[in-house]
Amino acid sequence: MYKCSKQRMEDKIKTMSKYGDAGHGGVTRYTLSQEDLQARDEFVKRMKVIGAEIKTDDMANMYATIKGSSPNLPGIVMASHCDSVRNGGNYDGILGVMSAMEALETIADEKIPHKHNITAMIWTNEEGSLYPPAMMSSGVICYDYLPENIRKNFKHENMLLSKSVLDKTVTFGEMLDKNKYKGDKKNRLNPKEYSAMFELHIEQGPILEAAGNDIGVVTCVLGMVNYRIRAFGQSDHAGTTPMKYRKDALYAAALAIQQLHNELDKLAPDLVYTTGEILCHPNVHTVIPDMVEFSLDARHEDPKVIEGVVKAIKNLPEELAKCRIESEVAWTRDTVYFNKKLVGYVQEAVDELGYKNQKINSGAGHDAQFASYMMPTTMIFVPSKDGHSHCEEEFTSLEQCVKGAEVLLNAVLNLDRN
Amino acid sequence: MYKCSKQRMEDKIKTMSKYGDAGHGGVTRYTLSQEDLQARDEFVKRMKVIGAEIKTDDMANMYATIKGSSPNLPGIVMASHCDSVRNGGNYDGILGVMSAMEALETIADEKIPHKHNITAMIWTNEEGSLYPPAMMSSGVICYDYLPENIRKNFKHENMLLSKSVLDKTVTFGEMLDKNKYKGDKKNRLNPKEYSAMFELHIEQGPILEAAGNDIGVVTCVLGMVNYRIRAFGQSDHAGTTPMKYRKDALYAAALAIQQLHNELDKLAPDLVYTTGEILCHPNVHTVIPDMVEFSLDARHEDPKVIEGVVKAIKNLPEELAKCRIESEVAWTRDTVYFNKKLVGYVQEAVDELGYKNQKINSGAGHDAQFASYMMPTTMIFVPSKDGHSHCEEEFTSLEQCVKGAEVLLNAVLNLDRN
Question: Binding residues for Zn(2+) 2, per the UniProt record (chains A, B) (predicted)?
Fold first, then answer.
């Protein structure tokens, strides 16, 4: 049972928080941006210090590996991402990378014997903030996206509003091609050279904190549906069109959002659903909107509940406030259950360490979810203060970060021994 | 009592509709754009044919004048604009310009005697689509804006979403400086050289059509208020935040919009109000919105009703769905009554011509409203099919357009005689 270095972990957190520092406690670190490169350079610098071998693949995913005593056995990977959302926090993704670094640094520092090669990995573009979709690289490598199409992806139109990126309207492929960490396709994560993947991540919710636990032993990633819902009205002049003649798409959308809230609240207490994005055309204060589109994201472990969500969407009236309503499924995901053997090693490690813990599921999508389609995979959660994430208030205490790294390290060593 | 040329009017409508043709029946003709310049060139070409003298001022407003028999008397102006909203129609603004041209062409063609100089005028940037505010030039020249500040105005942020203008993020002043029609400040419309202004415009509403009238004798421009209403929530992860912990600013905004509809519908049957613009931050489908702002535009002749609107906004709860609600007045305008004498000349002309007509007020703002602060001013409306405007369905029949031009011509001649 091995411990990690609090001081070394603190130094990594402080250093990484500088890269993309938005000036008020959080970071904006888009994938493949200058800020992202600073974080990757830091990763390379520290991994070289412990003698790790650095490789990168054609999606600019990065692998830092220390050899085991039986280097021909398939290796063990600890991975997460270092990109962030706009005005994100200092822990989402990057903490998983720092914990993997801390685990390798501990192994090197204490010369912990291990048979398998052990790798700390960075996934490119997990957030998809600038170039949708999220979890792009793990999707490309482990799942069924077509890289050639992904490369053509443009910035999210919403991002055009962000002055900082207005001047670089390039595709993901162009960004990738001019990135110094773009490497060889043969270096991709694959089930021949690697036998398992662990990902430590912040919970991004309030459950562990509310229960007073420091570690979440993750068992699954919740199933979800993502819909686009549109209201079609008629653009007319705001000052000259009597109310009775109007077809106001924004008013129709407001009614639809409220009706969805009323219906979905009846389905299950632990269902989560979000209307996070809204687009309005022409979006001018003197013109009645003729088209409004908004997103609906809903997540739950039980497919029956997700079916109920789809039913509620389908049950929206064909017309609200004289506007035609239509809905379209954007994407769906079935609940992904993690590898029972690996979940067991995590539970074993946290029990040995004696940290307060619980089984938990992940409402958020992670690269681990796609990786699990390719090889045995599991996750470890640490608490998020007040449950906040994807914002600058995001916080996990140093003690909790170190406990997480220790659980990761010992779970990996448990697997190594068996 | 003089008539205009249907064939000549039809030719103007067909020609002007080509400049900015968006390919599906309407135009996108932003002020000072290439398309706008094409329309202005057409104006110059046709006005030179009838021997009009062309002048432009420092806001690129254009004046085509034919001399009267007493050229030292203050002249009479017929004015409107040739810029459009995005995907606008073929009549808003440009019909007023074409009617002024038609009136001058008729006077020249039939050698109609007149004492006063008579001017056809184009106002720059009435729509403010690309460079807010609307009615910029008349505001600068007749009202109380500061031109130097106006020049610094950037594109409406919303316009950044329009790929076509992404490459030219310049200020209005820069656009103006490189425009060949920018002229001398001394040529501005002024109450010494000019005695009155008439503006013909489409109604942009369904009232004339519903009453079967061809002409609206406009008596006033409705008073209005324009508010920005904001909801402040908390950004958290869409998949990991239980519903009871959420502060969803978009849901709060949807509730606020519905509450406003419920309250404002009680105030007056002819009150018009619009929530035409909505901005959501960060506007990502996987993030709970932390800030949503929307516009509220309300218009009515009676200040008591407008007071009721303000009261309803102030009465919004301080908190909706655990989100703080705040409102801020963007701008207001009192009802503007047009010059009774000029309104009389318009009524006289339409009665002589025997066209079906009614008194009507204008819910839309027009340059005439600012001009009326400087000199006697009035307006003439023609019907809008199905009341549609600020959209490509905008339509007024050729017969109605010609009738409008004839009322404009004869009203101007009535004033000339008195």
Answer: 92, 127, 390
pLDDT grade for B157, boundaries at 50, 70 and 90? very low
Q: In which region does residue A98 sit, left (phi positive, over 0), alpha (psi from -120 to 50) or beta (all else)? A: alpha
Residue ranges for the known binding site of B are 81, 92, 127, 201, 390
Is the model's pLDDT at B231 over the cut of 90?
yes
- What's the mean pLDDT in B160-178? 61
Residue B1 within a domain: no
Check which CATH number belongs to the domain holding A376 and give it: 3.40.630.10
Residue range B57-97, pLDDT digits in tens: 999 999 999 999 999 999 999 999 999 988 899 999 999 99
Domain count, chain B: 2
Counting as low any pLDDT under 70, the low residues of chain A are 145-146, 148, 151-169
The DSSP code sequence of A15-72 is HHTTTTB-SSS-B---TTSHHHHHHHHHHHHHHHHTTPEEEE-TT--EEEEE--SSTT
Distance from CA of A374 to the nearest CA of B (A): 23
Q: Which of A278, A285, A364 is closest, CB to CB, to B276?
A: A285
The structure tokens listed for B332 are 């207001």
In a domain, A322, yes or no: yes
Structural element, H or E, at residue A346: helix A340-353
User: Tens digit of pLDDT for each residue in B297-322?
Assistant: 999 999 999 999 999 999 999 999 99
Q: Is A81 annotated to bind ligand?
A: yes
Q: Are the beta carbons of B237 and A299 separated by less than 8 Å?
A: no
Concatenated DSSP letters of B1-17: -----HHHHHHHHHHHT
Q: Tell me which chain A residues have a C-beta less than 8 angstroms from the C-beta of B297.
A: 238-239, 285-286
For residue A303, the enclosing domain spans 223-333
Instruction: Report the alpha-carbon angle A291-A295-A298, nearest 5.
Output: 150
Q: Which residues of B touch A242 (CB under 8 A)?
A: 205-207, 270, 272
**Residue of B236, B290, B360 to mutate, testing the A interface (most A Cβ within 10 Å of its Cβ):** B236
